[in-house]
Design goal:
This protein has 588 residues and is α+β, with helices and mostly antiparallel strands. It contains 14 helices and 28 strands. Helix 1 runs antiparallel to helix 4 and helix 3 crosses helix 4.
């Protein structure tokens, strides 16, 4: 291993040469407080930044064992450190020192959600930062003195300010880890209490704006307050400040399993509550306002999605007997309608294990959700292939154990099938189940249930490996992420605009690689999609996210990846237009 003096000498020698001379610094260097690994050097200053790792011994870092002795606490600590590194870089590093990406130092730090990432890795022996670096250039000529300043002066400052524990705001780090652990402790209690979600008193659900995921400022926000009928107290793993001292519990609203309606007037907070619940599948940073909005991890947001591809999905529980005899038990379409896409989205989510469906009437197909008595009288059932969601929602819970939370502001027919009705008024919830049932009795719907037969099964599908081709040009594997909502898998774009629980660009990047890994390793023509995704999860639990990168080698920078859920991976697979499936006997 070379020393820091060797790095300085090489940078001095290549100063003023063509940019490719930077290739000469690849390798490892021993600094007084850390080891620097230059894993990849970009080809020119306009290319994707170079990849470097900085590994600090725990003797130097001094991170307390108590902060990473189990997976939840370790994940939280790694996230905290990535955010500290990001903040330190913004404070210490000048963004540009030449052409293209010259002078860039960056780390993949998160937004409001706390996710498993590859940006920082903590072990009992060391802590490692994975950075993107733009080596400085004037035009395409090496600026060796500027590179020396970045690597030999700024990097040591970043390490000292953000990784060495004695230099950290230790209470802040401990509080961050404790907050994440509390959220996961609440999540583990939901099933035993018969709940699908918990929303703590005092939560701030509205966001700053449609373009910002930060909380609305306290002087403009209305803190959440649970209605008495749904109030529950949750035990915490760590104490938090209370009115009369530290407490180990939180009071708030528990949403029971079953069918829950969220009703109320426009702009009173219905969709805001639902959005908080859909993001509640992830832990959040302290101060987000939703850090104690905790949802079942198997909750999936469902919506209509005109134009999406559907492959071999049995949508017959909702849509049957299409005109001209088109079958729906193995439905395929390159351009699904609103109703068929929503039906497919539900069946696909259940197929891979969803236990809670989250729906908003604003993003649903109207004819999929309900047919009222007047429309039934005009258009007879024998001429209508759609069985509305209204007529299946109770079956989903009674037969399959799948709960639903539905925002509904325009159709009281759902009062008949709801177990719980929550009214939002001025961003505060009121439990109005009894009142809603009384209204339903006073104003009978007069519509007829349109289920021809009960739900018998959810048909499992087997993905065919040959339909996954990540190649492009001369590259056997070429997977690019163009945005949070778009993967280019080989030559095929995968549009994820309507996959609403995908929250981070690095998750999207991981999904692209996860599809390739799953196809290569687990798709054998026999395993169902659900079985493939379970095997993938077990593989990642064992080998970590680093193993997702198809170009990753041992002791190399794996790229900026964040852990996606199986539901978002499945959604991307289902939207790949080359996908081919065959059906197999029911999972349920």
């Amino acid at each position: 291993m070379r020393r820091v003096e060797d790095l300085r000498r090489i940078l001095s020698v290549i100063d003023g040469r063509g940019y490719k001379a930077y290739k000469g610094i690849q390798g490892s260097y021993e600094f007084p407080a850390f080891t620097l690994y230059v894993d990849h050097v970009q080809g020119d200053p306009f290319a994707s930044p170079s990849k470097v790792r900085v590994r600090v011994s725990q003797v130097v870092a001094g991170l307390p064992d108590s902060l990473f002795h189990d997976p939840v606490r370790c994940l939280a600590l790694e996230d905290f450190l990535a955010r500290k590194v990001h903040a330190t870089i913004r404070r210490l590093v000048r963004d540009r020192r030449g052409t293209g990406k010259s002078g860039l130092i960056a780390i993949d730090a998160g937004g409001q959600e706390v996710l498993e990432r590859t940006a920082v890795v903590v072990t009992p022996q060391w802590v490692e930062m994975r950075l993107s670096v733009g080596f400085p250039a004037a035009g395409r000529r090496v600026l060796g003195d500027q590179a020396e300043k970045m690597l030999c002066h700024e990097l040591p400052q970043i390490v000292d300010s953000s990784v060495v524990w004695e230099n950290q705001p230790q209470q802040g780090g401990e509080g961050f880890v404790a907050c994440v652990e509390n959220q996961e402790h609440i999540r583990r209690q939901l099933d035993a209490l018969g709940l699908i979600a918990f929303v703590a008193d005092g939560s701030i659900l509205p966001r700053e704006s449609g373009a910002s995921d930060c909380p609305l400022p306290p002087d403009r926000a209305i803190p959440f307050r649970a209605p008495d009928a749904l109030r529950i107290t949750m035990e915490l793993a760590n104490s938090i400040p209370g009115a009369s001292g530290p407490v180990n519990f939180l009071s708030g609203m528990g949403i029971p399993q079953g069918v829950t309606l969220i009703v109320g007037g426009g702009y009173h907070g219905k969709s805001t509550l639902l959005r908080a619940l859909e993001r509640g599948v992830y832990p959040h940073i302290s101060g987000d306002g939703r850090e104690y909005v905790v949802t079942c991890p198997d909750a999936v947001k469902i919506r209509a999605e005109d134009g999406r591809r559907v492959e071999q999905v049995d949508i017959s529980p909702f849509i049957d007997e299409l005109p001209y005899g088109r079958p729906t038990s193995a439905f395929c379409s390159d351009d699904a309608s609103g109703s068929t896409s929503q039906a497919a989205n539900i069946i696909e989510a259940i197929e891979v294990g969803a236990r809670v469906l989250l729906l908003d009437e604003d993003t649903s197909a109207t004819n999929f959700m309900v047919r009222d008595a007047r429309m039934q009288a005009l258009v007879r059932k024998e001429h209508e292939p759609i069985t509305p969601f209204l007529d299946r929602v109770r079956e989903f819970y009674g037969q399959l154990g799948i709960s639903t939370v539905l925002v509904m502001g325009g159709c009281g027919d759902y009062f008949d099938v709801a177990d719980t009705v929550i009214m939002m008024r001025d961003y505060l919830p009121y439990e109005v189940t009894t009142k809603a049932k009384a209204v339903a009795q006073s104003y009978p719907t007069k519509r007829r249930a349109e289920t021809a037969s009960p739900i018998a099964q959810i048909t499992a599908r087997v993905p065919l490996q040959e339909s996954f081709d990540p190649s492009r040009g001369r590259r056997a594997v070429k997977i690019n992420v163009k945005s949070k909502d778009l993967i280019l898998f080989g030559r095929e774009p995968i549009a994820l605009n309507f996959v609403e629980q995908l929250v981070d660009l690095s998750q999207t990047r991981a999904i692209g690689y996860a599809i390739h890994l799953a196809a290569k390793r687990f798709m054998d023509g026999h395993l169902t999609l659900h079985e493939v995704l379970v095997a993938l999860e077990q593989f990642l639990n064992c080998h970590g996210l680093d193993a997702l990168d198809p170009f990753h080698k041992d002791e190399r920078h794996p790229g900026a990846l964040a852990r996606p859920r199986r539901y978002e991976i499945a959604a991307a697979i289902n939207r790949l237009r080359t996908l081919r499936m065959r059906q197999r006997k029911s999972l349920r």
